[in-house]
Design brief:
Elements lengths: L4 H24 L4 H15 L9 H16 L6 H7 L6 H14 L9 H8 L1
């Protein structure tokens, strides 16, 4: 399979918009930075072993952010708020089903060293 430079540029643009969207959500809901780091970690670990359509990528991201928020936040946003974030593209049940899929794939191993852990060592 031959992949062109344009394919890489297109993929890079999609991923940039995808992660920037989660950064904005993190800022809007005033989530701690660790929540965003864990969200990216969960997405990466899930995608390393699963193929997912581009249309479901946002659903995966929202489910991973919800899991990370439950893990890190004192008062995590409710599932309905995560549905609202997606302009109600996904129903509550879809988000909860994806959350279950992610948790099962990751075998409930939610603790992970994040970038911030290593940055603390440098200070």
């Amino acid at each position: 399979m031959i992949v062109s430079l344009m394919d890489f540029v297109t993929l890079g643009n999609v991923l940039l918009r995808f992660f920037f969207g989660f950064f904005q959500v993190s800022e809007e809901y005033r989530l701690v930075p660790e929540t965003l780091y864990l969200t990216v970690n969960y997405i990466d670990r899930y995608l390393s072993g699963n193929v997912i359509s581009r249309q479901k990528l946002q659903l995966l991201g929202v489910a991973c952010m919800m899991i990370a928020a439950k893990y890190e936040e004192i008062c995590a946003p409710q599932v309905e708020e995560f549905c609202y974030i997606t302009d109600n593209t996904y129903l509550k049940d879809e988000v909860l089903d994806m959350e279950s899929d992610v948790l099962n794939y990751l075998k409930f191993e939610m603790t992970a060293p994040t970038t911030k852990c290593f940055l603390r060592l440098v200070r």
